[in-house]
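Cross-check.
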Amino acid sequence: MTTGLIYGFIGFLFGAICGGALLGPIGGLFGAVIGGGTGHFLGKLFHVGFAQMAATKPVRVTCPASGEDVKLRIDPKEAGWAAFHDDPQTIKTCPRWQGSPHCHRRCERQIDI
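Predicted model, tokenized:
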């Protein structure tokens, strides 16, 4: 969420400055609205691409049940979707699932992409 807000704010400022310089006060208002929306959307797309790229490598978390470090795999497509909607990441594979069939996946909260 913060990525989209940051880029939205940057786009808002950039649009207000450029629109105001080119078209006056009305242009500054119009540029701020267009720039804010565009910046927010582009920031979200940037975050999706980063999440998909980061999900290609294993993620190291601490298993809440055993307390040991575990390398997890995340599906890149689902990682991008979760990043776009600000949802928690979901685990694709985990080496501990063979030993614990009733895993509650509390370690998903530790994944921050």
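The chain has two domains: 1-54, 57-113. DSSP finds two helices and two strands in the chain. Passed to J.P. for a second look.
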